[in-house]
Specification:
With 313 residues, the chain is mainly alpha-helical. Helices cover 75% and strands 0% of the residues. The chain is built from 12 helices and no strands. The radius of gyration is 19 Å and the shape is globular. It starts with 8 loop residues before the first helix and ends in a 12-residue tail after the last helix.
Length: 313
Amino acid sequence: MSTPSRFSRIDLILLGLVGIWGFNFSVVKGAIGPGAPFEPIVFNALRFCVAAVTLLAWLRAARVTLPASRRDWLSIAGLGLLGNTLYQVMFIVGLNFTSPATSSLIVALTPVIVALISAAFGLDRLAALAWIGIVMSFGGIVIVVLGNQAGVPAGQAGASPLTGDLLVLGSTSVWAVYTVLAAPMLKRYSATLVTSLSLAAGTLPLFLVALPDLLRVNWNAVPAVGWTAVLFSGVFALAIGYVAWNHGVKHIGGARTAVYANLIPVFAGLAAWQFRGDPLTVYHLIGAVIVLAGINLTRIGRQATVEPLPAEE
């Protein structure tokens, strides 16, 4: 694979993609919770159903060769339960309690947590620069989280976003484990195939978890903006987003593609500020600079690389 050195059409596609992913945090936040069209679990089940149907239709249209081994099917199903069902339940509930800007910064820690897990299991060796980056990344998140806590009015402890921050951090750790465990499967199949099938495998449990809430939904009362959010998040942020990201990995390389992930918190924070009126505090700005610098130091300091999978939103 030859990696183009100049800004190309692929770079333009990836720039648009991270804009979609950043905006998606506000779309999801606006569609869930009290006063919104959907409960968090219901919205997640709906958008994943849309994404699964879209991706499976794409695989069929592209005539992609499916795994022949039963063991591989079981492995992909296990990845789906971990990287889609468990991850998404924790993420969507966490986002319901915290802000799009903060959650996008925490999700951006994925390569840092992947590096830690890989080092813990002897799959990767980290240079001193990587360890400095790891400490910086988590230090930046602590600044953002403490800033969020300081912004909660006295007497409203129940409104604290700390629970949401911890759930999003837990979900990001789950996605990092998924990324490490998916590596052997990615040596035998394309990232798009593994991602599509694991997403489809994780969608059924998500739907079953949401079923009691789905049965209580007054579908006639769901406004058009609610269905627009489901379609946008399912088709663009998940289905098309995965294909576009993997297209970038294939044509310009994982390292160059991964750089664009650093822009997701920037787009997410600006979108939340512009369209939702969420404040961008000095804690967000200082924390974001430290986190993004730490992520890049971690990437530079790693002596072995892991091809990036898209961090779901």
